[in-house]
Amino acid sequence: MIKKPQFNRDDVEVLGRETLYKRFFRVERISLRHKLFKGGWSQSIGREIFLRGNAVAVVLYDPVHDLIGLVEQFRIGAMGEENGPWCYEVVAGMVEEGEQPEEVARRELVEEANITPYHLEFICNFLSSPGGSDEKLFLFCGLSDLSQAGGVHGLPDENEDIHLHCFAADEVFAELLNGRFNNAAALICLQWLQMNRERLRKAHVKE
Fold it and tell me: Which PANTHER family match (predicted)?
């Protein structure tokens, strides 16, 4: 049995905070100290943190036609990638204040893929890079009829240019670990789908 961590938030003392940058995202420098495994407290430590907030990501799956929907779009962080800065991803978006993750999942599916799922299944949540960011992603699988899906979507006022592709599941899984799906949310969603594919098909495909 995996025990809970020895320490919690009460075992950290924040000594000061300074905002270094604030626009759409925020960067802060935090001075703190925390309890040590060998006893006592650490010295004062300075850490920069990228405050991004919560986000949602959804992998689209059609269990009847055994299709997976992925979106392709330009990503500035992938400029140095061998395959270029256009990435295959799952649908994703930021959680605004007062919103629930499932609400965001449904909204983003309409905006980025013009899809309304007939079922949403929660997968998990995870911290994308806890060493330097507070971002937490909530992952879902959106079951939909993808037989006629595709095309270019997104919000023009946000400069979104998002191309929805639908692939045979076997084709996606054959390419899963070759670097084409080079982001954590897509990899986690697709590996979950690979493990749950037969269960979803049995539950949603009529004989």
Answer: ADP-RIBOSE PYROPHOSPHATASE (PTHR11839:SF5), UDP/ADP-SUGAR PYROPHOSPHATASE (PTHR11839)
Domain 54-204 sits in CATH at 3.90.79.10
Tens digit of each residue's pLDDT (9 = 90 or more) over 121-135? 999 999 999 999 999
Does pLDDT of 207 surpass 70? no
Residue found under tokens 């270094």: 20
- CA atoms in the 13 A half-sphere facing the CB of 158: 11
Q: 88 near 72, Cβ under 8 Å?
A: yes
Cα 118 to Cα 116: distance, rounded to the nearest angstrom: 7
- pLDDT of 179 strictly over 90: no
For CA atoms 76, 102, 200, 148, give the dihedral sign: negative
What residues are labeled active site? 158
Q: Is 116 exposed, middle or buried (0-12, 13-18, 19+ CB in 10 A)?
A: exposed
Burial 59-71 (b: 16+ CB within 10 A, else e): bbbbbeeebbbbb
**Cα(50)–Cα(25) distance, integer angstroms:** 7
**Average pLDDT in the 71-83 region?**
92
User: Do strands 86-89 and 67-74 pair parallel, antiparallel, or not at all (unpaired)?
Assistant: antiparallel
pTM above 0.85, yes or no: yes
Separation of alpha carbons 166 and 173, rounded Å: 13
3-class DSSP state of 176: coil
